[in-house]
Amino acid sequence: MKTKTLKTTTAAAVLAFGLLASQPANAANNTSDSASNSVPNNDAFTFGVIGDIPYGDAEIAKFPSRIQDINADSALNFVTHVGDIKNGSSVCSDEYFANIRSQFDTFEHPLVFTPGDNEWVDCHRTNNGAYNPLERLDKLREVFFDEPGQTLSATMPVKTQENLGLPENVRFTQNRVAFSVVNIQGSNNSLLPWSGLGETTPTPEQLAEVEHRTDAVLDQIRATFTDAERRNDRAVVLMTQADMFDPSLLAAATASPETVSGFREIVGAIIEETNRFDRPVYLINGDSHVFAENQPLAAGSPWLAIYGQPAADDLQRITVDGSANATNYVRFTVAGNSSDRGSVLSWEKIPFSQ
Predict the structure, then answer these.
(1) Residue 261 contacts by C-beta under 8 Å, 6 or more apart in sequence?
(2) How many CA atoms lie within 13 A of 340 on its CB side?
């Protein structure tokens, strides 16, 4: 075991973006601190994380078995899927979404799901069906977030940004650890042009969605840390699909920081809040498909120059395996409540049975 210290319709979303600009920051969150959204527990507990699964026909066929393996881990308090429920070259059909939702419903633990770029951002591609990505995002919210404020499968109450049209953005606390799951996307946070629809630059509707969603993400991140500080929480755990520190993008981002411009504000907020919190912060993501455990914002990291930001040494990042590497889930263990400092979170990869 490795231990570390440390929608609504598119039109409505665009309208909500206009309204958001006139609201105070804290009004953008349907996230008042409520005991019903916090699970009191003084003991250690575990949760599981998967992402970028299932990819392709062979993995789709194995997915029910993967779920049963996770179900057999009866000690898990909940499971999170950090996005990408399909590969990047298959059709983003209603039928596929319905099939994955039916599979999700067989989880026996509460399931938190945040969408990935493969199931909406990149659906403009011809081999994905040449969909309008915003229409696909609407459909995802209809299929997977039909009961805002509750997790999928076994229900667990969560705080949500449903009032902003983002029911997928949720947060909750367990044993003085604050969890926050936010919709941040690969493909530069959805700023790449919809080339499959003949676009060479981002459309006005696309830019409005990105700005609205990013503002909501920033508000949730800040509210998560504010509440964690007020409650004297021991750690914050952020989860998202996008790998904002993807090693395969490092050379391109070094040459042109605009390659990752869609993440700049978010990274800045994470650094500011992590340094203010001054306790362990963990970022769990998928997207880049290769398990990693590192501190991408520690002093000396090349990402600091790319994002133009100071260091945040208390941030520990864990990337889960995905795609062809998705042969395991990651089991995280949260230490008992007596552990105020040091090893709040530890983790290990648990192989699937087949």
Answers:
(1) 188, 191
(2) 3
